């Protein structure tokens, strides 16, 4: 017992120290982000507009590309090779759509057909176009979506492995937050686009991984479910999903009137962008105050909505009691609930037992469903974390698991579930965490991102 407590305390101290060091640099970055000229946001940037006739191209077709400069928190330039690809994908209603992914290579790396590819899905969690990660990663973008911007630290950790990385705008041009099929399609087609992009030099049998937490896990999880039918040619070796929001309805009910009510507000707004019938329902039944509130939520990113709508009762914005009991919301929420298909790629799921935003019972249930259907799932339940803490403390195990999969190490058939005191309280996780922290501090200070033999 003493050993377990000591390891757990050491892990928590390491997480706090690392977070403090990174906060010092990122606070400086936030204070200076306005110094660089801001690029035009997606709604004003012609690059995001697809060419005429793109609808007839195959999903994953690269429609346009450009090289870009990446900056952490809009201010700290990252020495990393980066391009943006506009590509054809498919929306929630199975209609053609175009969106953007940012693809990355280690500094100094040459194209390679044997290089693994990781698709990293950030938690955009917003219903406004300027919140897209393709914009938020650029120099001078400001800090409207600083929560998503912070995930550059995990993106850099992936590039540091020598991998190519795709970071898709999986919500698409309409910022359809919570639209699962849309997110899954855009993630898979972003992988196709990366494979089709000659400067990366990826091969037809490139080993592919996916990773995301919270909103990013929603996209990763839907991609894993849809891949056998939508993109069976992709050689996906593993999918890591943390803080998995299986049931948006249950997240909404739990968040309402609490500190995360603003995230639920963004989710409803995002779904109204994907479902015209929901937008019409809201236009019919929202009060005047409710219409003004949702109009504002559609213009703001995650942390602004989280602050403005915290502890609000969102149902009071409607003129009818219990709006979720009506047929249109019921149908929409049923369609965006996970567990409709079984992943064939191996899956690593990590979730806090005490998650205050995303119910762990829903994740328990979908894992059981996957396993009953023959999926290969490694499920790790964490006791000492909560939703936000596990982003940090769960990342080392997710990264190590992906390294094994992309390195060619297979997983056993079947499923395994374990409950741990703290994911970070193992020597391997702590060592990985320390390496990630050091490499990110160096990257934030201007050191090239990538393995030493490539820079």
UniProtKB/TrEMBL annotation:
<dbReference type="GO" id="GO:0004806">
    <property type="term" value="F:triacylglycerol lipase activity"/>
</dbReference>
<dbReference type="InterPro" id="IPR029058">
    <property type="entry name" value="AB_hydrolase_fold"/>
</dbReference>
<feature type="signal peptide">
    <location>
        <begin position="1"/>
        <end position="29"/>
    </location>
</feature>
<keyword id="KW-0732">Signal</keyword>
<protein>
    <submittedName>
        <fullName>Secretory lipase</fullName>
    </submittedName>
</protein>
<dbReference type="Pfam" id="PF03583">
    <property type="entry name" value="LIP"/>
</dbReference>
<feature type="region of interest" description="Disordered">
    <location>
        <begin position="31"/>
        <end position="58"/>
    </location>
</feature>
<dbReference type="InterPro" id="IPR005152">
    <property type="entry name" value="Lipase_secreted"/>
</dbReference>
<dbReference type="GO" id="GO:0016042">
    <property type="term" value="P:lipid catabolic process"/>
</dbReference>
């Amino acid at each position: 017992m003493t050993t377990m407590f000591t390891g757990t305390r050491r892990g928590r101290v390491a997480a706090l120290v690392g977070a403090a060091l990174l906060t010092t640099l990122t606070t400086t970055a936030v204070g200076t982000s306005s110094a660089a000229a801001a690029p035009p946001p997606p709604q004003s940037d012609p690059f995001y507009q697809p060419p005429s006739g793109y609808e007839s191209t195959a999903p994953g077709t690269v429609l346009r590309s450009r090289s870009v400069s990446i900056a952490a928190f809009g201010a700290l330039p990252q020495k990393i090779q980066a391009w943006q690809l506009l590509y054809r994908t498919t929306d929630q209603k199975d209609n053609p759509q175009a969106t953007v992914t940012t693809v990355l290579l280690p500094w100094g790396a040459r194209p390679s057909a044997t290089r693994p590819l990781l698709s990293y899905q950030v938690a955009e969690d917003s219903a406004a176009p300027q919140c897209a990660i393709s914009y938020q990663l650029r120099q001078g973008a400001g800090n409207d979506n600083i929560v998503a911007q912070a995930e550059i630290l995990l993106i850099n950790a992936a590039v540091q492995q020598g991998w190519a990385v795709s970071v898709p705008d999986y919500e698409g041009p309409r910022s359809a937050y919570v639209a699962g099929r849309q997110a899954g399609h855009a993630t898979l087609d972003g992988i196709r686009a990366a494979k089709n992009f000659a400067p990366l030099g990826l091969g037809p049998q490139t080993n592919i991984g996916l990773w995301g937490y919270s909103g990013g896990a929603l996209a990763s999880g839907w991609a894993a479910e849809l891949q056998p039918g939508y993109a069976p040619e992709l050689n996906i070796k593993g999918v890591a999903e943390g803080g998995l929001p299986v049931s948006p309805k249950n997240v909404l009910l739990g968040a309402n009137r609490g500190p995360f009510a603003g995230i639920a507000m963004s989710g409803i707004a995002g779904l109204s962008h994907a479902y015209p019938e929901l937008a019409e329902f809201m236009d019919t039944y929202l009060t005047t105050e409710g219409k003004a509130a949702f109009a504002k939520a559609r213009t703001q990113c995650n942390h602004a909505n989280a602050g403005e709508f915290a502890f609000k009762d969102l149902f009071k914005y409607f003129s009818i009691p219990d709006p979720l009991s009506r047929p249109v919301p019921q149908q929409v929420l049923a369609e965006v609930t996970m567990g409709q298909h079984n992943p064939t790629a191996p899956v690593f799921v990590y979730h806090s037992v005490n998650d205050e935003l995303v119910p762990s019972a829903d994740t328990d249930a979908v894992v059981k469903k996957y396993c009953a259907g023959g999926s290969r799932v490694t499920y790790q339940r964490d006791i000492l974390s909560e939703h936000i803490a596990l982003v940090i403390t769960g990342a080392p195990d997710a990264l190590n698991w992906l390294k094994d999969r992309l390195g060619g190490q297979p997983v056993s058939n079947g499923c395994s579930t374990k409950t741990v005191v703290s994911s970070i309280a193992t020597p391997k996780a702590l060592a990985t965490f320390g390496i990630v922290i050091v490499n990110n501090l160096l990257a934030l200070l201007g050191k090239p991102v990538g393995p030493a033999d490539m820079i």
